[in-house]
Amino acid sequence: MSKLLEIRGLRARIAGGREVLKGIDLDVSPGEVHAIMGPNGAGKSTLSSVLAGKPGYEVTEGTVRYLGHDLLTMPADERAREGVFLAFQYPVEIPGVNNMYFLRAALNAGRRQRGQAELDAQQFLKSVRERLKLLDIGDDLLRRAVNVGFSGGEKKRNEIFQMAMLEPRLAILDETDSGLDIDALRAVSDGVNRLRDPARAIVMITHYQRLLDYIVPDRVHVLADGRIVASGDKTFAAELERTGYAHLVDAA
Amino acid sequence: MSDITTANRPASNAPAPDVLDGIVQGDGYKYGFVTEVETDDAPPGLNEDTVRFISAKKGEPAWLLEWRLKAFRRWRTMAPPDWAKLDIAPIDYQAASYYSAPKAAAGPKSLDEVDPELLKTYEKLGIPLGERAALAGVAVDAVFDSVSVATTFKDKLADLGIIFCSFGEAVREHPDLVRRYLGSVVPQGDNFFAALNSAVFSDGSFVYVPPGVRCPMELSTYFRINAAKTGQFERTLLIADKGAYVSYLEGCTAPQRDENQLHAAVVELVAMEDAEIKYATVQNWYPGDENGKGGIYNFVTKRGACRGARSKISWAQVETGSAITWKYPSCLLEGEGATGAFYSVAITNNRQQADTGTKMIHIGRNTTSTVISKGISAGRGQNTYRGQVKVLSGADGARNYTQCDSLLIGKRCGAHTVPYLDVRHPGATVEHEATTSKISDDQMFYCQQRGLTAEDALSLIVNGFCKEVLNELPMEFAVEAQKLLAVSLEGSVG
Predict the structure, then answer these.
(1) A76 chain-B contacts, CB cut-off 8 A
(2) What keywords is this UniProt entry annotated with (chain A) (predicted)?
(3) Mean pLDDT lowest for which of B222-231, B269-278, B455-464?
(4) Whole-angstrom Cα distance, residue B453 to residue B451?
(5) CATH code of the domain in which A213 resides
(6) pTM
(7) A interface mutation test: which of B437, B443, B449, B453 has the most A CBs within 10 A?
(8) For chain B, what percent of residues have pLDDT higher than 70?
């Protein structure tokens, strides 16, 4: 099967600043879950930002192909409508904007792009109820303004709920486990597991091994100093747990 | 026979374009068309003869001419206010013409008598007339320049004893009411622009709701400036008698012009015991181009008197248009337990300047007021909130809450907040909260990462920012206002 995401020799820096990604190569196929681990400052979040098209980064070299398209030339909103989803580490608050309203606007933006009819309020509500059931979460977040006053766990849950609604082809989870207690981590992980799909790839960026106990990846990569320095299958994560990154980082 | 009927009813049968579609489609200012209608203008210049000319044209009684002349003499002694944070080129008041009326408007009895050009204009504006009005549940007293040409629903309202007509008609048909209340809230010499309006006001709307009557529909007036170089001087007087309720909507659009146009309106509201008035405005006069060329100068005096106990007056405004906005809808809280409210969204983009806010004057005991102001500045726009809360010594238990938020888009605009608190009662509770924020890059990116375009993201964030005010608008206005906010900010994100 052809690759969903092909990253070749990707180098990027913070606009006007230092180089953070120093030559990333990564292939992700549909249906796969990849975990990208590594120490602080290795470039994990920069990688997710560059893939999502966040302003403030400059790609200096390399290519990223997504479903055969040149991802880097697409504006951020177009990437999103084409099925690239970023679950934010720190979801921002948008005061006064109802969560449901926001989600419906986002969903219909994607549907328009794909030439599908927009969902009316009733169809949308039906879809919302199905996803709530799938993820086993209540509807308490939906009536509130986007992320306003949400706890850390609620914000992450809301991100996964949005992912469920928007049905991306490529989901990038940026430190989705950070700041979660064990119950919240389990709830969020269960949600992600239910969203695993043969057509969908998931790239999880994480600091901690513990997330991988809940979401078992197909591939595990270690990112250090802007490069992927080691990769392996799911058993590699357990090995890392024992040995740590240090020897890999030093080797880099 | 049916052919003739059809031909004679252009307004009621033709599907008028949806005004909202007009706002959201295409780019630039949507209402920049000019209707070719012969006008019967006053010669340019302003002196006592001009005032006499206007009064004579309108066939007014002697008392009203005297009232105008008194205002004019007062105006001549006054200077334009210079305290607002507005950079205005000097206005040559002698260069403008102070009266303009469509020639054919000698009092049409039905739509058939109305100039078809005017009807087309209404169609372009999406003003519901005839059956459309019935469906929309809205009565329209449409002011085309200076003379009212069509009034609907009057019969239905008349059954309830509600008077809703042009100001000119009110002068003829209900002179006692007009004489009793005209200038009772905004005196002739209140300020420079109110004095000017009092001298040369052209037409406007008059509403009287009798005791105990709840007006069953939203009353709407659409204003439109059309003749070049003609100042518009609307005069609106609205009285809700004891226990009455009325909701009034005012929406404005104006054709595109290169020259600045002067607009000085006066609105007076009177609420008697237990009466409630809601007055909502969407102001979308031509704002001028990106370089500040053209655009309406909008100097408005709006004031409501809560005369009776437990009376309520609420102002809601969405100000997106005009090159210059100078406007402070206010409440005089006289009756015990009276309530005043001011909800405002003001947008300045490109070179627009707005200095707007409110005055809440607490006179009676246990009076309360709420002020929610949302200022949005983009481009090189300058947006000032200027508000006064005054609590007089007799106002036991007075309470005010003011929330004043500014949102900045881009680096070249300005937001200013100028609250005046004048509290002369030790027991008063006055709260003022103010915030200034920028739309963050993170908010924009979050929305875009979910698939929204930059424009849609901005519109969403801005509408969220304004939500508390938009919630106060009648529904049809709220929808229109949301679209208008987006259009007004076009081009403000790269």
Answers:
(1) 445, 448-449
(2) ATP-binding, Nucleotide-binding
(3) B222-231
(4) 7
(5) 3.40.50.300
(6) 0.81
(7) B449
(8) 76
CA distance A193 to A182: 16
**Any CB–CB contact under 8 A between A145 and chain B?**
yes
Closest Cα of chain B to A251: distance in Å?
A: 36
How many degrees, rounded to 5, is the angle at CA B352 between CA B388 and CA B186? 40
Q: Where do we find the tokens 């509403």?
A: B207
Task: Tell which residue, B95, B86, B83, has the closest CA to residue B46.
Answer: B95
Q: What is the rounded distance in angstroms from the CA atom of residue B49 to the CA atom of residue A137?
A: 76
ipTM of the complex: 0.96
Q: How many domains does chain A have?
A: 1
pLDDT of residue B491 exceeding 80, the answer is no
- Angstrom distance (rounded) from CA A97 to CA A90: 18
Indicate the residue of B450, B465, B467 with minimum beta-carbon distance to A80: B450
Across the interface, do B450 and A75 touch by the CB < 8 Å criterion? no
Question: How far off is chain A from B478, nearest CA to CA, in Å?
Answer: 15
Q: Does residue B131 surpass a pLDDT of 60?
A: no
Domain of A47, in residue numbers: 5-251
Amino acid at B439: I
Alpha helices (H) in chain A, listed in sequence order: 44-52, 76-81, 99-113, 121-135, 152-166, 182-194, 210-214, 234-243, 246-251
Nearest CA to CA, how far is A143 from chain B (Å)?
Answer: 14
Minimal Cα–Cα distance from B462 to chain A, Å? 9
What would the pLDDT profile of B340-359 be if each residue is shown by its tens digit?
A: 999 999 999 999 999 999 99
- Nearest CB neighbour to B445, from listed A76, A97, A107: A76
pLDDT digits (tens, 9 = 90+) for B244-264: 999 998 875 444 454 557 889
